[in-house]
Amino acid sequence: MGRPRRPPGPRRPRPRLPVARAHRLPRAARRVRPRRRRPGGFARTFLAAGFRVAGEDGRDPLGLMEWYAEGLAAGVDPASPERWPRLDEHDQAKVEAASVALVLHLTRPWLWDRLPPRVREQVVDWLAPAVGAAYPPINWVWFQLVTEQFLASVGGPYAEEDIEAGLALARTFERDGGWYADGAERSYDHYNGWALHLYPLLWSEMAGRAPDPAYLARLERFLDDAVHLVGADGSPLVQGRGLTYRFAAAAPFWAGARAGVGSPGLLRRAASGIVRHFAERGAPDRDGVLTLGWHGPWRGIAQDYSGPGPPYWAAKGLLGLSLPAGHPVWTAVEEPLPVETGDFTRVVRAPGWLVSGTRADGIVRVVNHGTDHARPGARLADAPLYARLGYSTATFPLLSGDPLDQSVAVLDEDGRASHRTGFTAGPVSALPSGTLVGSSRWRARWGEQGPGPDHGHSRPGGDLRDGPEVEVVSAVRGAWELRFARLPVEAGGTPVEAGGLRSEPDALGPPPAGRLRLGGWPAPEGGPVTRVVGGPGLTERGVAVAATPLAARTLVPWCATPGPAEPGRWYTAAILLGEGGDPPAVNGNAITWPDGAADEIPLPGPAAGQRG
Fold first, then answer.
1. By mean pLDDT, which of 397-401, 513-517, 585-589 is the weakest?
2. What is the DSSP string of 71-88?
3. What is the pairing mode between strands 353-358 and 480-486?
4. Cα-Cα-Cα-Cα dihedral sign, residues 154, 160, 162, 165
5. Residue 158 · residue 151 · CB < 8 Å
6. Cα angle at 52 between 51 and 53, to 5 degrees?
7. With contact defined as beta carbons under 8 Å apart, do 347 and 429 qualify?
């Protein structure tokens, strides 16, 4: 994957991005016109229209506000055949209500103030069930805050205690380095940017308050990490749920510009690069419609709450249109992304990520030892978009089946791979040489997800079987990861299941373990190089082929032990994505990297029976 063809330089006040062409919006919205239970198509396209009109200070030659006023009147009229469900009839309406309230605030002089009194009353009646309602204790808290704040601004019902309680709950999501967890679980993903950082800024504006300086400091720290997670081709990190929202990943960069935080030229390079990435690869499609998918349509990306309207949350990635043409984010010279200026490594502590970007191929990689959308000790099958050992801007995880790509798994008697959700996260750090090191440890488990499988979530399964413990240490430098894996000898002969057989405590030694398999990056055929070089004991190898939204043929290399893994022994494999040259040389825990750097990797131990 090469670097962008266009070097950084001056830009026109408005970039020529197809997704910003508001004249396509009404037709696109009609294609997903909300039925009674689907207001999302209206509310989410309303965001893009509202940003455009607000940024033009009410200039609306296409009559967007008139068109949306008509739809709004129909949706909130309880006697209309196209009326929307109330917030107390369907929880999803709580999500869409926040978008409606936000745009009504941004476009107030040109829409709300011109609505007939009866329609304004019906809008208030439709939003009012938000007051005192129960919202999930995740990013949804901001939907209630935004909705009630709008109600307060127009003389509608609201509860100050709801607002105070919501703000207090949102503060509990705060983590190191300006990051947020989406609730109490280890859920780190793009919701950090397009929800948990975006809404506090917009809510402050709605409330007539200056943004909290502490919030601005958190946003600035987060953006410093976020710009390192964008590939040179503009691809955001392919990780976490809601990926069909696509260029919504640009939202935090526009939020930074709106708040006056960060370098305007760098923020625009990141945001416009993400939007352009999708616009040049088939999203929207030839009819100007955003389908369920990534570049093109891909139904497998849908989650249990997905429908034709939800992809339009991508409109959050057009927040920059709400800023006037003279704003610094439009007039500044674009600056190159970090991955365009040179190779880098970076520790992101909150999600437990080791980040490596390489200029030669423009790829950003994340090795994951802290995120699984669960809590430590959870007995769950893996959510593919959270629990894999690696994610990148150039690969797409396999969304079904047991773990294969970016995994360390124990195989049972049927060859099924174990899961790692609920792992114990070890420290993540950088050695003096710049090499990154991280680790995690977990109880291997086999089984299925519970009812309603969803690759963005894990649900308790009815028949999960416990296996041996697995421990992994990653050393990351450039395009390579050197992965150490072992099945530790468990103190006291704790009973475990391995290879499908249950073993009782035995004074003669640990119970038998199954085969150990290490999977590499799932790269599109003809795309970046994906390679796994197994060390001693990992003599079986192969390449699996699967379909992903990036390619009908996605290649996943792997290596494995030919028989049961030896408990206590460290196995090593070099994992490559992109242009990395020869694999690192390994002698025990000593590594010599292709660039000549040498490291000794601190491994947990000693363990009984440990071998190099």
1. 513-517
2. HHHHHH-TTSTTPPPPTT
3. unpaired
4. positive
5. yes
6. 95
7. yes
Cβ atoms of residues 76 and 85 within 8 Å? no
Distance CA 340, CA 2 (A): 10
State percent of the chain over pLDDT 90.
81
Alpha-carbon distance of 11 to 341, in angstroms, equals: 20
Contacts of 364 (CB under 8 A, 6+ apart): 228, 229, 230, 231, 237, 339, 355, 356, 357, 392, 393
Is the predicted pLDDT of residue 65 greater than 90, yes or no?
yes
Output the six-digit token pair for 528: 């970046």
387 in Cβ contact with 421 (< 8 Å): yes
Q: How many helices (H) and strands (E) does the chain have?
A: 14, 20
* Per-residue tokens: 599: 């490291």
> Do 371 and 186 form a contact (C-beta atoms < 8 A)?
yes
Label residue 464 by pLDDT band (50, 70, 90).
Answer: confident
For the CA atoms of 541, 547, 548, 551, the dihedral, rounded to the nearest 10 degrees, stands at 100
- The partner residues of 463 in beta bridges, in order of sequence, read none
Query: What is the arrangement of strands in the sheet containing 353-358, beginning at the earlier edge strand?
Result: 344-348, 353-358, 363-368, 390-392
DSSP for 328-344?
Answer: HHHHSPP---HHHH--E
Strands (E), 33-115: none
Using alpha carbons only, give the angle 290, 83, 97 rounded to the nearest 5 degrees: 60
Task: Return d(Cα 526, Cα 551) in angstroms, integer.
Answer: 9
DSSP 8-state symbol, 304: T
pTM assigned to the model: 0.90
**3 state DSSP class of 553:** strand
Give me the amino acid identity at 519.
G
| Residue 84 backbone dihedrals phi, psi, to 5 degrees | -85, 155
